[in-house]
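Let's practice the habit of predicting before peeking. Look at the sequence and jot down your guess about where helices and strands might fall. Then scroll down.
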Amino acid sequence: MDIEDLRTFVEVADAGGVSPAARRLGLSKSIVSRRLGRLEAELGVQLLARTTRGAALTEAGLTFRDHAARACAEIDAATETILPAGDLRGRLRVAAPLTFGPTHFASVLADMARRHPQLQVHTVYSDRFVDLIAEGFDCAIRVGYLQDSNLIARCVGPLYGKLVASPAYIAAHGTPETPADLASHEALMQGTERWQFMDGDAIVTVHPRGRFKADNGTALLAAAIAGLGIAWLPDGLTDEHIASGALVPVMTRYPPPPAGIYVIRPPGQHPVRKVRVLTDLLIECFGQASFPAGASR
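Done guessing? Here is the structure:
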């Protein structure tokens, strides 16, 4: 029984069809279908019921999926133990934020691929929260403040940001002096997030409101420069515009608490070696420096 056929079946089962699994694996649909057919012929049972909407596991497929996933994991673990020290192979699928991924994290991932020629590195850049387990990612790089979840998180560096607005907005609406003042201002947000501020050693939480929302920090930056409201943005996005006078910091007596850069992985006793290596590279790059990126979720 071919291990790649097993891996392909697990991907199709988790992705819900041949097409999404083919995209995850970077293969053609015909190759994925051929591997599935070969595995079903080997077992003598139908594992997937193919429909116009995708593929659903049969009863035999449901039973076999968990066994196949464990077998693939055991093969990966066994392979790691006999590889030369530092050598990696297989595939690493990473989710990274669109706002900072291409500018800050892409070079680290490229360096990892350069150091490990047998490793396939597949990165998806998006500011949405991907479902690591359902969408088949080995890990994600996230920035900001983490939401509670059953995922495992490792902080790899600090993260800084501030509230900013345009001079035109301040002239028209005034400057908020305290977190409570934000209730009468237009906030530029990603969704329904909470904003936190330091009042001495205490943390004050507010629920801002606003009519302009976007799931990308660069879009919120453009709205802030246009005078639509107050935004909580990363220093890496705002420093240039503060220097030019297009934006000004507001409510500086109540700075946001430092956030972080995190590697997130599905729950498990030990991270796979390729995730550990990526984590170490990110710590090497960002762990000792003040990374100029703020509260982008």
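How did you do? The radius of gyration is 23 Å.
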